[in-house]
Every structure is written in C-alpha cells, then in structure tokens.
Sequence to fold (101 residues):
Amino acid sequence: MNEVHAVIELKITPQRDSGFGKIAEKVSKFEQVEACFLMSGGYDLLVFVKGDSLQDVAAFVASDLSTIDGVLSTATHFMLKTYKARGVFDKGEDDRLAVTP
Fold:
C-alpha cells in the first residue's frame, strides 16, 4: 500500500492567552499529522500529513483542519516523488504518485 504524503501551510489567528500553541496542539492530535512546525514568513504552521489517497488527505484538510476555530486558510502541497529523505538520495525507480486514477 502506498501512502500519500502532503505538506500543508496554515494561516491562523493567534489566541489571546496561548498564541499559536493551542491551535498547534489541536492540529497535532490528528493521527494523519506526522509533524507540525511554527514558521516565519507567509504562513504560521507547516504541517506534514499522510493518508491513503489524495482524496483522503483532501477530505482531512476540508473537514478537519480548515474547520478548526482560528484557521484562516490552508494550502496543500502533495509530495509526488522523493529524491532525498533522511540524508539519503534515492536513485531508484520512478515512484511518483499517479495524479489520475
């Protein structure tokens, strides 16, 4: 089974007493979320997620992430092919995800 991995940018409104922490904690509790980082720049949180399909990740973003109070917007980027991970360059076969079923 091939898992689908994506990186999601979240723009959020900081909470009065907890800043970005409360929303980051809510986001991090989802089983699809592998990592969550506070970022500088054009968005606030960078979230790494996995799912069974492109549709699975898209549904997670639409129904779970984007509906959290304080989340203003999301931008999802699907990982199509890995060239280097954990310090190792992959010289293997073309393992890009099929974009169409």
